[in-house]
Write a structure and sequence with these properties.
This protein has twelve helices and nine strands. Strand 4, helix 7 and strand 5 form a beta-alpha-beta unit.
Length: about 260
């Protein structure tokens, strides 16, 4: 059983939803990424989504775009991100890590070379935003042969046929984008989220995580009541962006700890 599956099984037995924070690797400084990962785990993260910096992150709003730009200016690339995961694994062999990003860096490295390097580093899952099921056969084969989960997105506009296509190839969990827009948008319709998660569960035998638009404890708690996981990214990245460098790790941990408390109430 993968680390991701084991975490969701444990939480299901406890009647809890997972908390999945997203940060961009290399932001605000490459030397802080591993410390941020540990701080998020200590604050209650069940899984960590680690963003691979990319110059044209089409699904991301301004906050995460800026975080990618900051990391890229400091020379952070895919190989550096994998090394950060490797360093994290030196003292944490339990917390699942999912790389979230875009196909271009993976294809530039080579799909098989990437999958092998990800396995060696200790990556548990990969979410390539611009890799739909129909175009992912090569990547899927490379990941599956190394027991790495392939995470896919579903959206408010996803039709039953699309949901079933994702169900046939996804593993670990599926990520439901809770609104029509980019990361960080704020017009979240909680009733619609509940309806869509229920529809997805009829067709997908995997945990359903919900992200995009979750910015505070009240919203996280409401989403946790209907979903298997709460993903929080832009608001956390904002906290890192606004903090002095010396306080970024502490501020990120404190913010996520508040989200965890709200979800557990």
């Amino acid at each position: 059983m993968s680390r991701i599956s084991a975490v969701f099984r444990r939480l299901r037995e406890q009647g809890c939803s997972a908390l999945i924070p997203f940060i961009t690797a290399g932001d605000p400084q490459p030397a802080l990424t591993v410390a941020l990962m540990h701080a998020l785990r200590d604050a209650g993260a069940d899984l960590i989504e680690l963003g691979v910096p990319f110059s044209d992150p089409m699904a991301d709003g301004p906050t995460i775009q800026r975080s990618s730009e900051r990391a890229l200016r400091q020379g952070v690339g895919l190989k550096d991100v994998l090394e950060m995961v490797r360093q994290f694994r030196r003292t944490d062999s339990a917390t699942p890590v999912v790389l979230m990003g875009y196909l271009n860096p993976i294809e530039a490295m080579g799909v098989d070379a990437f999958a092998e390097a990800a396995r060696s580093a200790g990556v548990d899952g990969v979410l390539a935003v611009d890799a739909p099921p129909e175009e992912s056969a090569t990547l899927l084969a490379a990941l599956r042969s190394r027991a790495i989960d392939a995470i896919f997105l579903l959206a408010p506009t996803s039709r039953p046929r699309r949901i079933e296509a994702v169900a046939r190839v996804a593993s670990g969990y599926v990520y439901y984008v809770s609104l029509k827009g980019v990361t960080g948008a704020s017009h979240l319709d909680l009733e619609e989220v509940g309806r869509k998660v229920a529809e997805i569960r009829k067709r997908v035998p995997l945990p359903v995580g919900v992200g995009f638009g979750i910015r505070d404890g009240d919203t996280a708690r409401a989403v946790a009541a209907v979903a298997d996981a709460v993903v929080i990214g832009s608001r956390l990245v904002e906290e890192i962006e606004q903090a002095p460098i010396a306080e970024a790790v502490q501020r990120a941990g404190d913010f996520l700890r508040g989200i965890r408390r709200a979800m557990d109430q």
